[in-house]
Each structure stands twice: as structure tokens, then as C-alpha cells.
Design goal:
Layout (H helix, E strand, L loop, with lengths): L1 H20 L13 H5 L20 E4 L9 E4 L4 E7 L2 E6 L2 E2 L7 E10 L7 H11 L18 E5 L5 E3 L10 E3 L3 E2 L2 H10 L5 E5 L1
Parallel strand pairs: 2-11, 5-9, 8-10
Antiparallel strand pairs: 1-4, 2-3, 3-4, 6-7, 6-11, 7-8
């Protein structure tokens, strides 16, 4: 049986180069497939940046000496961290993505709404800016789901346009790339969402 399998594999190996050589002469060498590519073609996701619900910055419970009531959310945009006070002297620290240069802000507010798999309505000023600067046309509205840039959960801050929300681009965590909203990996924003009540105090500082 082993000899039969070996013979079959040898025959396949001998046939594959012939199939490669049978390509049109006009085809460039960069388009020519190697024997390995013929026998074991790459998956559709080959060389594409994979998505994940996990953050590249692992959340952890830390000592937190600031005097805030339990449930308070403190966002430090310079450190790219969100601190959720869970007990006197303790907080859970999460990695976050923050607003890029010119889009940072600070202040004190509260959580006024929570949503699971939220829909996205880009502000008109954002749609105009993206069209002018990048030539892309953002949708007036995008239903919630895995492809939505707001990710799995959103916590709305006061009556502002800003949110703490998930993302389908976890590699942006730790970066300054947003238009002012606070991004978290989906796994982290779900954890925060489940532990945060409407009315929780939010402090954003630079």
C-alpha cells in the first residue's frame, strides 16, 4: 500500500510542473505558480490582516490611587488606557484607541445610553471631510454587525457625538487613529459594557 501511495504522489509531482509550463508564453514569471502553490494553494485569507475580538493590549486589574466612586470610567488619551474603577484603590485597565491629532478632547460627562451591535450614522461633517480628503463616500447609515466600525457594543457619552465602542480593527488599539471616539477591542468593550450602568461618570483627560 505504501508503495502504491508513493507512486501516486510521484506521478502527481511529475504532472504538476507540466501544468505550470502549459501557461501562455505571454504570462510573466511573477504570475507563474510554484509546485507548492499548485499542490497546496493558499487560502483566501493568505497575507490578509486577520480580524480578532482580542486586544493586543491585555486588560488587567491594577492598583488605582485616584479617589473616584466605584463605576467611574477614567480615560487617559496620552497613555491610551481606559480605567474602570471596580473597588476603592482598584481599577481594570484596558488598552484603547484614541483620536488622532486635532481630534482629541477632554472633559467630564456620563454614560447616557448603551447599545449592542450598534448602527452607525456618521456625522455629516465627517462624511464631508472623508470625501474631501480621501475621496471616499461614507454611508449615511450602516446597520450594526461584524462589518460595522462600531463593533460589538457602544456606550454613548452625554449628548456628544463621542462613544466608547468596539472595533473590527483590533490592530488600531493603542494608536491615535479615530475621529475622537474611544475604541476598544470587542472582547474588552463587551466586558466593560456588562459592568457599566447608565449614569456612570466618565472623565476624559489628555
Amino acid at each position: 500500500m505504501k508503495r502504491l501511495i508513493s507512486s501516486a504522489f510521484l506521478a502527481l509531482c511529475l504532472m504538476a510542473p507540466a501544468a505550470v509550463q502549459a501557461q501562455p508564453a505571454a504570462q510573466s514569471s511573477s504570475e507563474t505558480k510554484s509546485l507548492l502553490q499548485v499542490l497546496f494553494p493558499p487560502s483566501d485569507n493568505f497575507n490578509k490582516q486577520s480580524r480578532s475580538d482580542k486586544s493586543p493590549i491585555k486588560r488587567k486589574v491594577i492598583s488605582f490611587k485616584e479617589n473616584h466612586p466605584v463605576g467611574t470610567i477614567v480615560i487617559d488619551t496620552s497613555d491610551r488606557r481606559l480605567y474602570h474603577v471596580i473597588a476603592p484603590g482598584k481599577a481594570t485597565a484596558y488598552g484603547i484607541g484614541v483620536g488622532r491629532e486635532g481630534f482629541t478632547w477632554q472633559g467630564t460627562n456620563k454614560i447616557t445610553r448603551k447599545a449592542e451591535w450598534p448602527g452607525w450614522t456618521p456625522p455629516q461633517v465627517m462624511r464631508d471631510r472623508v470625501k474631501r480628503q480621501e475621496g471616499r463616500v461614507l454611508p449615511a447609515y450602516m446597520a450594526g454587525g461584524p462589518e460595522n466600525p462600531l463593533g460589538a457594543r457602544a456606550l454613548y457619552i452625554g449628548s456628544t457625538i463621542y462613544r466608547i465602542h468596539g472595533t473590527n480593527q483590533p490592530w488600531t488599539i493603542g494608536q491615535a487613529m479615530s475621529s475622537g471616539c474611544i475604541r476598544m477591542a470587542n472582547e474588552d468593550v463587551i466586558d466593560l459594557y456588562n459592568k457599566t450602568n447608565i449614569g456612570a461618570k466618565v472623565i476624559v483627560r489628555q
